[in-house]
Every structure is written in structure tokens, then in C-alpha cells.
């Protein structure tokens, strides 16, 4: 574990460069302990896989003072960290998942195997970053790991579910992207008019549930109609 | 009510930014140059963090459909009904007046503040536009803006002394940084290269980040990739190309490239205002020094606010062959 300056108004606490459920649970426990302390100088905390940033007001406090204030909170127990269980309906393949055949072929599997393996595991949300509402999940089964596209797409639709190496995730908003797209969810992952604005939160346990095109259309209408 | 008649470049509503949502992946956003933006607000009698218009390079043309106090911050030609007026000065526009803001002679971002602030729907606690995620949108011709009710607070004729106008006209700028946090991903040579070479801002630069061209920064055997970790505006990532990218106000909240340093808060406006082609030299400072620099800047901004509020007077004094501006008044 180490603590370093991240500029003049943040410090970075790192528990080593690892992707690990237990280390990540500790990151969130420490983040909540800091948020719970009502420090007058605290702006916000930003957790990631195995590190977290503490953003502070440099006009109110020095780096050394912040370091002293957070050090006693680093050994906090991680037992209480329990997320919600969330099911993400996904329409796999077809125009919604144009790369699913590549993922199958690359791994010597059938398309149905890819769906079964991808939806057969529970993933934990380690943190949100990159884009508003974009969840970094625990890794996919080695059998469906697939490298990124050589040329990223300029536009990936919101809700697209992709694989990149052993990572899997959902594009919360339309953006460029190089992940292999295997399906799409009709759910809105990010909606600034909702509180909280993101569907997923760190710690949540996510399962992908295959759905039919009819179900997709119905759910999509329910989620998006009022917004269009 | 104000109607935008023409909008030649990126024009957005910005305020001091969005805090509390970074853990959900939502960027901070806010003023690219918070010094100019806050002074623009002070000129019309607003608190520094009020929402105003930020334009990139070229300003808009607008018609006032109500009486409004406004000020433009930037090195730019400003006309009201075709008659030139001064930037960094507040004016009272009448119903029907046409304001035209030209193209910046130096710097990249200009600001137009209105007494009472631009009225906007706060999304996640802020008016700052971050269009990628549906948080506000770039403004366009035909848009109408409401401004806050400010008959009592708005005042015209406030002007920033010439000596206090920020100068963004240089071809080369020294930018101070705090080193780290991922220094073990660089060789000593790499860090030395970063601190001793000139880097040039490339045209692939926007509110999210400024890409720099220059001597390759050498990574250690640990390489350019890290396990994705948090970053802040000012963080300098160095991908495999060895060319640094400085994250700006719309930066993503986390990143997977090693960070060699972070630009100090007080110098971010100078970097933000540097045009493509500008040479950047990085200078290392300790976090405590960065804090002292920021405290001095905040004192200056507070003195400017009090001067514009009439609580302080400004005197120009010559000493040791140099001209100084002194503020005097009750603190």
C-alpha cells in the first residue's frame, strides 16, 4: 500500500497493481470510511480496481495533513461490502451483436456456447470510469476472451455489450469503441435525470440474461420512450 | 432573454464544474480557464462560479431582448450595435442591442458573463455542458438564453486594470507540474527527457485532453500500461508512443496509461489557453509549493473581486524600475 500526490489537490492510495475482488472490496471500504468522516476539505473520492483518489481542497489543507487523516482509515474491515444483484437483459447476436460469430470462431465455439458462457457467470462491478456509467466488471471466462478490433468503430450504440480480452462491459452512451460487440441491452445505463444517474454501482453483482427480440423491443420502449 | 444570431464555433454554458459524480464515471467539466471565467463573473457582480458562456476561438453574435449587464473576457474585438467596446469591462445592454464578439487574437477560450448568470437546468448539480453524456449541448444559432434577475446587483462600467489581464500570447509557456504518481513506469532518462524538452501542442486537442509532440519519454521495463486508476484534470498520461497527453476539464475519470506528472491547478488556465503549435516546458514543483502558488493566485482573484466591488482601490506604483499594482482597502 502506498500514498502519493496526484497533483496539488488529490492523493492516490494504491493497494498494488492487481485486479482482485478482495482488494477492490477494500478500496470501496476505505472510500466509504473517508466519505463517512465529514472532513471539511474533502471534495470527493474516486475508487478504481486497486486504488482510489481522494480529491481535496488545497486551500483548506495540505497533502501531508490529508495523508495523516486517511492513514488510520486504511485498515477498515471489508466485511460489510455487499452490492445488489442486477440482471441485465441482453439480445445476443444479429445486428445487435455483430461480432458474436467472430468471438465464437476465434475461440472454436458455437454462437450458443458464447451466449451460455457469457451469461453463465456472475460479474462484480469493480468501479465506474471511462464514460459516465461504464462499469469495469470482473473478467469473463477464458474460453470467450477475444482481442479488440484492429480498427475501432467510430460509433458504438448505447447499450452495446462487448468483450475485449477478458474484459466485458456495456457502452452506457454512444461512443467510439474497439470492443467485440456480442449483444445489446435495452436498459439505460446512464440517465442524468435519474438519481442515481447510473444503473450500476460499484459492488453490484451482475448477470447477463439472454432475451428475445420481442422482449428487447418491449423493454426498450419502456426505458427510452419517454426520453425520445 | 438573449437570442443567439450566429455561433461560429463551440459555444457552451460552463460553471465551476460537476463534483461528487466522478465515482460514477462523470467528468468534472467546467471552465477551461477558471481565472478568466471568474474575473468575467466578478465584472458583472456575480460570484465567481456562476454559469456563463464559454467560446472556442471565435465568439457569437447575439441580440438582447431585455436589458442586461454583460462583460466579455478575452483578447478580442467586441462590438455593440457595430460600435467597438472594450473586453474585460461590464456594459449595460438595452433591449434590441446586438453584441458581436470577434475572433481571439491570443488564447483559445473566451467568456461572456451576464449579471445574474445564464439560467440553465442543473444536471447532476452543475450547468457545465458535457454533451457526450447528454449533460447539456453545444449552443447554436436560434437558441434563446435567459439570464438571472440582476437589476439590483448588475453594474456597468467595471473594468479590469490592464496589468491584471492575463497574457496568453506567448509562443512558449512554462507549465509547473507535480511529478508522479506512476514514476516507476518511467526510466530516469524518461523523466529527465520530460522535464528538459520542449513539447508542442498538436491540433488533436480539445476539452478532454491536449496531445503533445516532442522527444519520446522512455518507459521502464514496467511499460506504459497500468491497472486502470483514477486521474484528474492536469494529469499527464504517457502511452506507448512516448508522447504525453495532458488531461483537461472533460477528462475521463480513470485511465490505463502511466501518469508521469500532474499540472498544478494555478497553471491549468495557461495550458488551456495555449494554441496548437505552442511550446510547453514542464517544470517540477513540490505539492506544498503548488499549494502556495495557488493560495497567491486566490489572493489576487479575491483582490480583483474586492476592487471591482469597490471595496478596494488599486494603485500603480513604480519601484526598482518596475511597475507594480497595489491594492488597498479593508480586508
From TrEMBL, chain A:
<dbReference type="GO" id="GO:0016787">
    <property type="term" value="F:hydrolase activity"/>
</dbReference>
<dbReference type="Pfam" id="PF02682">
    <property type="entry name" value="CT_C_D"/>
</dbReference>
<dbReference type="InterPro" id="IPR003833">
    <property type="entry name" value="CT_C_D"/>
</dbReference>
<dbReference type="InterPro" id="IPR010016">
    <property type="entry name" value="PxpB"/>
</dbReference>
<keyword id="KW-0067">ATP-binding</keyword>
<keyword id="KW-0547">Nucleotide-binding</keyword>
<protein>
    <submittedName>
        <fullName>Allophanate hydrolase, subunit 1</fullName>
    </submittedName>
</protein>
<dbReference type="InterPro" id="IPR029000">
    <property type="entry name" value="Cyclophilin-like_dom_sf"/>
</dbReference>
<dbReference type="GO" id="GO:0005524">
    <property type="term" value="F:ATP binding"/>
</dbReference>
<feature type="domain" description="Carboxyltransferase">
    <location>
        <begin position="1"/>
        <end position="200"/>
    </location>
</feature>
<keyword id="KW-0378">Hydrolase</keyword>
From TrEMBL, chain B:
<keyword id="KW-0378">Hydrolase</keyword>
<keyword id="KW-0547">Nucleotide-binding</keyword>
<feature type="domain" description="Carboxyltransferase">
    <location>
        <begin position="23"/>
        <end position="300"/>
    </location>
</feature>
<dbReference type="InterPro" id="IPR029000">
    <property type="entry name" value="Cyclophilin-like_dom_sf"/>
</dbReference>
<protein>
    <submittedName>
        <fullName>Allophanate hydrolase, subunit 2</fullName>
    </submittedName>
</protein>
<dbReference type="InterPro" id="IPR003778">
    <property type="entry name" value="CT_A_B"/>
</dbReference>
<dbReference type="GO" id="GO:0005524">
    <property type="term" value="F:ATP binding"/>
</dbReference>
<dbReference type="GO" id="GO:0016787">
    <property type="term" value="F:hydrolase activity"/>
</dbReference>
<keyword id="KW-0067">ATP-binding</keyword>
<dbReference type="Pfam" id="PF02626">
    <property type="entry name" value="CT_A_B"/>
</dbReference>
<dbReference type="InterPro" id="IPR052708">
    <property type="entry name" value="PxpC"/>
</dbReference>
Amino acid at each position: 500500500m502506498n500514498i502519493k500526490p496526484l497533483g496539488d489537490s488529490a492523493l492516490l492510495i494504491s493497494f498494488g497493481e492487481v485486479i482482485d475482488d478482495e482488494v477492490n472490496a477494500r478500496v470501496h471500504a476505505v472510500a466509504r470510511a473517508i466519505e463517512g468522516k465529514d472532513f471539511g476539505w474533502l471534495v470527493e473520492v474516486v475508487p478504481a480496481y486497486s486504488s482510489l483518489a481522494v480529491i481535496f481542497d488545497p486551500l483548506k489543507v495540505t497533502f501531508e495533513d490529508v495523508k495523516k487523516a486517511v492513514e488510520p482509515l486504511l485498515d477498515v474491515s471489508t466485511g460489510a461490502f455487499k452490492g445488489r444483484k442486477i440482471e441485465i437483459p441482453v439480445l445476443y447476436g444479429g445486428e445487435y451483436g455483430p461480432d458474436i460469430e467472430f468471438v465464437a470462431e476465434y475461440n472454436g465455439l458455437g454462437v450458443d456456447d458464447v451466449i451460455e458462457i457469457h451469461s453463465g457467470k456472475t460479474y462484480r462491478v469493480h468501479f465506474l470510469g471511462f464514460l459516465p456509467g461504464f462499469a469495469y466488471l470482473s473478467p469473463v471466462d477464458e474460453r470467450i476472451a477475444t482481442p479488440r478490433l484492429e480498427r475501432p468503430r467510430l460509433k458504438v450504440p448505447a447499450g452495446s455489450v462487448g468483450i475485449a480480452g477478458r474484459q466485458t462491459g456495456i457502452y452506457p452512451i454512444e461512443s467510439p469503441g474497439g470492443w467485440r460487440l456480442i449483444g445489446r441491452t435495452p436498459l439505460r445505463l446512464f440517465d442524468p435525470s435519474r438519481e442515481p444517474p447510473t444503473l450500476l454501482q460499484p459492488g453490484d453483482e451482475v448477470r447477463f440474461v439472454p432475451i428475445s427480440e420481442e422482449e428487447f423491443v418491449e423493454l426498450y420502449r419502456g426505458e427510452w420512450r419517454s426520453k425520445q | 432573454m438573449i437570442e443567439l444570431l450566429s455561433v461560429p464555433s463551440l459555444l457552451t454554458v460552463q460553471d465551476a464544474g460537476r463534483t461528487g459524480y466522478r465515482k460514477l464515471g462523470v467528468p468534472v467539466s467546467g471552465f477551461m480557464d477558471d481565472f478568466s471565467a471568474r474575473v468575467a463573473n466578478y465584472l458583472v457582480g456575480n460570484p465567481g462560479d456562476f454559469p456563463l458562456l464559454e467560446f472556442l476561438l471565435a465568439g457569437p453574435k447575439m441580440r438582447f431582448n431585455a436589458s442586461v449587464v454583460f462583460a466579455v473576457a478575452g483578447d478580442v474585438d467586441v462590438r455593440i450595435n457595430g460600435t467597438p467596446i472594450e473586453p474585460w469591462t461590464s456594459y449595460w445592454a438595452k433591449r434590441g442591442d446586438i453584441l458581436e464578439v470577434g475572433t481571439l487574437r491570443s488564447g483559445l477560450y473566451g467568456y461572456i458573463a451576464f449579471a445574474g448568470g445564464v439560467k440553465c437546468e442543473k444536471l447532476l448539480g452543475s450547468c457545465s455542458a458535457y454533451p457526450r453524456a447528454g449533460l447539456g449541448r453545444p449552443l447554436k444559432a436560434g437558441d434563446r438564453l435567459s439570464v438571472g434577475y440582476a437589476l439590483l446587483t448588475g453594474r456597468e462600467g467595471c473594468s479590469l486594470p490592464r496589468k491584471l489581464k492575463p497574457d496568453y500570447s506567448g509562443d512558449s509557456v512554462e507549465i509547473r507540474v507535480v511529478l508522479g504518481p506512476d514514476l516507476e513506469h518511467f526510466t530516469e532518462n524518461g523523466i529527465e527527457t520530460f522535464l528538459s524538452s520542449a513539447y508542442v501542442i498538436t491540433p488533436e486537442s480539445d476539452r478532454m485532453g491536449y496531445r503533445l509532440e516532442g522527444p519520446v519519454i522512455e518507459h521502464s521495463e514496467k511499460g506504459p500500461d497500468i491497472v486502470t486508476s483514477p486521474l484528474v484534470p492536469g494529469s499527464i498520461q504517457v502511452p506507448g508512443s512516448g508522447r504525453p497527453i495532458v488531461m483537461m476539464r472533460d477528462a475521463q475519470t480513470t485511465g490505463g496509461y502511466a501518469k508521469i506528472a500532474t499540472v498544478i491547478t494555478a497553471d491549468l488556465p495557461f495550458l488551456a489557453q495555449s494554441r496548437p503549435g505552442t511550446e510547453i516546458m514542464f517544470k517540477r514543483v513540490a505539492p506544498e509549493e503548488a499549494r502556495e502558488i495557488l493560495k497567491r493566485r486566490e489572493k489576487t482573484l479575491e483582490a480583483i473581486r474586492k476592487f471591482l466591488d469597490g471595496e478596494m482601490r488599486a494603485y500603480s506604483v513604480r519601484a526598482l524600475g518596475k511597475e507594480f499594482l497595489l491594492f488597498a482597502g479593508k480586508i
